[in-house]
Specification:
alpha+beta, single chain
Length: about 750
């Protein structure tokens, strides 16, 4: 069979050989082939591809061909598709069973393919002819119905009430009495059901599923046939959008020409019905909840009279519920404070139409009780406030728990503060222990190094003068020889020329002077080490702060001599020395731990030097001055206006009359406000890992503030350098044990 539109054939067989051979022959004859190897797959396949004919094997795994046929015929879209069984079963009972299930033919295996093709073509032609016949019958019935409806509509249009029918606010329809075809509907009916007129005219109420319950339709028809008319009977309609509508129907039988019809008027009462049901249901739910609720529930009218109270109110007040009705709190002689708070809040709800929540407490037979109450408006059908409902919950346990919680939180905060203080003490103690051990080892090392360097250096310094005398004597002797023997031999002249004797005689004094200068420099470094370490000083002493700062500065610069800024200049590396500016004021002696102040000044100077590593023109300014308590407070007032200042000041009770002030400033990159807030914290450091311990500034703060009762503060901003200000009282405030040294 060859045609432009190929017929679709579904082959259902579990044998691949049968499928392949049969498919080959069918494709040759112009069929479009689809395959399923089980009954289950065939059921899924027909949902996606609707075939024109199905070839179905009987013996298959899973469900057999008979069950597959039964299920296929149960599907609405498949029931008219012809099914031909294929099987080796030749029993008459099997053939009858297959035909009974809806199959149209039976082909016995092994297949005779020419016969199979012929039978397939016959059944496809029969199906096509059946379809054409059904289509013609449908068209014919539609044409006849259309003519009948047209005639009835023509007659109806001539009736006097046609205009009233169409413009009526009630939903109206006219349908034939016998078949129930809708002949005419008005716009109100379309609005009610959601259909357009062209969607329902010519159809029955069953076809558009108008009735929610078919039993209602039967009751409607029965009442109409008995009495010829019905008046406002309640039914339920289903709209186009599957919404349920409650309606009141009035109908009567009328004649239009020679045709008996039903004139039906429908009124939509869905909103009223649902409102009644909702109101009833809510009232029942409210009653059930209120009667069994432990909360105190009451309802008030606009004059603050009780409309309802639940049993919980009666239990708490020991007043029967019926006595509450129609009376106010004041009429019931309730406590004045309770009556006042209810009157105020309930009146506010009536005035504003919004929810109000409040709390009150009263003395009951169970003791003093605390309640939290919510008052909400209840609206009537006219959207005005009909009543106010109050629901009060006993929160006595919550109040007691809140008090206990606050007390517990206070205790926990106190514990947390104590733990924080303990932790800080432990951190300081740990830092002190670490630094004590390091500085003890460093002190022994410094003493040993100073001693070992001092011995050979003293030997050098002690032998310079004898060496000068010995050389002078030898030089005098040589001069005498040259005068007495002006013509030495050739060998002596050669040796004198090789030695450059004249140069040696002239350069000897410069050589000895250079040796003496170097040895003196070594001696100064040893003295600086001794002075800095203060190995021979303990306890508080009256010292000259300028000298302490100067010695520390000298030691630090000796250790970092040559450490400055290096930068490339045309391929070569050039060093930039740090510029030092010293402005020492006239200070009286200060009672302090001088070794500890050495450590503070050294830490601040080392930090300044580290901050200058990237500066092209590094500069450090060290300045001392005397400050009184009055001028100190004035300066603080000025400095407080600067956002970039971060100060760690002592408590007011540690202030004294006069201070020695030491300022150490650099022109480095400066610090952000965030860094300044943390810089005195233990172990906080901005240096790379391994470059610092983060203890220098923390212990400096401890030495200045805790050991000396002074102040240490910082004034800095990004890109504007940093200045540390140390203030030491001229008279000691605290006399704690000597603090550990700082690792630099």
């Amino acid at each position: 069979m060859h045609s432009q539109t190929k017929s679709k054939v579904l082959i259902v067989d579990d044998q691949p050989d049968n499928i392949n051979i049969l498919s080959y022959f069918l494709v040759e004859y112009g069929f479009e082939i689809f395959v399923a190897t089980t009954g289950e797959k065939a059921l899924h396949r027909v949902e996606k591809i609707l075939p024109d004919l199905i070839l179905l094997d009987i013996m298959m795994p899973g469900i057999d061909g008979f069950e597959t046929c039964r299920r296929l015929k149960a599907l609405e879209q498949v029931k008219d598709i012809p099914i031909i069984f294929m099987s080796a079963l030749a029993e008459m009972g099997d053939k009858v069973k297959g035909l009974t299930l809806g199959a149209v033919d039976y082909i016995t295996k092994p297949l005779q393919y020419e016969e199979a093709i012929a039978r397939i073509n016959v059944h496809l032609q029969l199906r096509n002819l059946t379809k054409q016949l059904e289509q013609q019958n449908t068209l014919l019935r539609a044409e006849v119905r259309s003519r009948q409806l047209a005639e009835l509509a023509l007659r109806f249009s001539e009736e006097k009430f046609a205009s009233s029918f169409r413009s009526s606010p009630a939903a109206m329809t006219i349908a034939t009495l016998e078949e129930g075809y809708l002949m005419e509907v008005n716009q109100s009916f379309c609005n009610l059901t959601g259909y357009f007129p062209e969607e329902i005219l010519g159809k029955t109420d069953r076809q558009i599923n108008l009735w929610e319950n078919l039993g209602d339709r039967d009751r409607f028809c029965q009442l109409l046939h008995i009495s010829g008319a019905i008046y406002k009977q309640e039914f339920q309609f289903r709209t186009k959008f599957d919404q349920i509508k409650f309606v009141l129907i009035s109908a009567e039988i009328i004649s239009i020409g020679d045709t008996n019809c039903i004139l039906m008027m429908t009124y939509d009462i869905t909103e009223q019905k649902r409102a009644q049901e909702t109101l009833y249901r809510r009232e029942q739910e409210f009653r059930a909840l209120a009667e069994n609720s432990p909360d105190i529930i009451a309802r008030f009218d606009s004059k603050l009279r009780h409309l309802y109270v639940n049993p919980a109110v009666a239990s708490v007040t020991e007043i029967p519920a019926e006595i509450f009705r129609g009376k106010t709190y004041r009429q019931l002689e309730m406590p004045a404070e309770v009556a006042e708070v209810f009157e105020t809040n309930v009146s506010a709800v009536f005035a504003n139409g919004t929810e109000h929540c409040f709390e009150f407490n009263c003395l009951t037979k169970f003791g003093r009780k605390f309640y939290q109450v919510c008052a909400v408006p209840e609206f009537g059908r006219d959207r005005t406030i009909a009543s106010v409902l109050t629901v009060g919950r006993d929160i006595t346990a919550v109040k007691q728990a809140e008090i206990e919680l606050r007390n517990s939180e206070l205790r926990e905060r106190e514990k947390s503060a104590q733990l924080e203080l303990t932790l800080n003490d432990l951190k300081r103690t740990q830092a002190q222990l670490i630094q004590t051990e390091k500085m003890f080892s460093l002190g022994r090392m410094v003493a040993g190094v100073a001693h070992e360097i001092n011995n050979p250096n003293s030997f050098i310094l002690g032998n310079i003068n004898p060496a000068r005398h010995y050389f002078q004597d030898l030089n005098n002797l040589l001069t005498l020889y040259q005068a007495k023997y002006p013509d030495p031999g050739a060998e002596i002249q050669q040796v004198a020329q090789d030695l450059d004797l004249d140069f040696i005689q002239k350069d000897w004094s410069r050589l000895m002077q250079s040796i003496e200068s170097g040895a003196s420099r070594i001696q100064q470094i040893v003295d600086s080490l001794k002075l800095f370490a203060k190995l021979d000083e303990v306890g508080i002493k009256q010292v000259n702060i300028n000298q302490v700062a100067d010695r520390t500065l000298q030691f630090v610069m000796d250790v970092t001599r040559g450490k400055g800024i290096t930068k490339s200049r045309k391929g070569s590396i050039a060093g930039q020395e740090i510029e030092l500016i010293k402005n020492y004021g006239n200070l009286p002696p200060v009672a302090c731990y001088s070794s500890q102040l050495n450590q503070v000044f050294a830490s601040l100077l080392n930090n300044a030097i580290d901050a200058l590593e990237t500066q092209p023109y590094p500069k450090i300014v060290i300045q001392t001055e005397l400050e009184t308590a009055e001028s100190s407070r004035c300066n603080k007032g000025v400095e407080a206006k600067t956002d970039t200042q971060h100060s760690m000041a002592i408590a007011p009770q540690t202030l004294v009359d006069r201070f020695a002030v030491i300022r150490i400033a650099d022109n480095g990159m400066g610090m952000s406000e965030e860094v300044q807030k943390k810089m005195f914290d233990p172990f906080f450091s901005t240096k790379p890992v391994g470059s610092g311990t983060g203890l220098g500034l923390s212990i400096s703060h401890q030495i200045v503030v805790e050991q000396h009762g002074g102040e240490i503060s910082c004034i800095s901003a990004p890109g504007k350098g940093t200045e540390f200000v140390v203030k030491i009282p001229l008279q000691p405030v605290t006399c704690g044990p000597e603090t550990v040294a700082i690792e630099h």
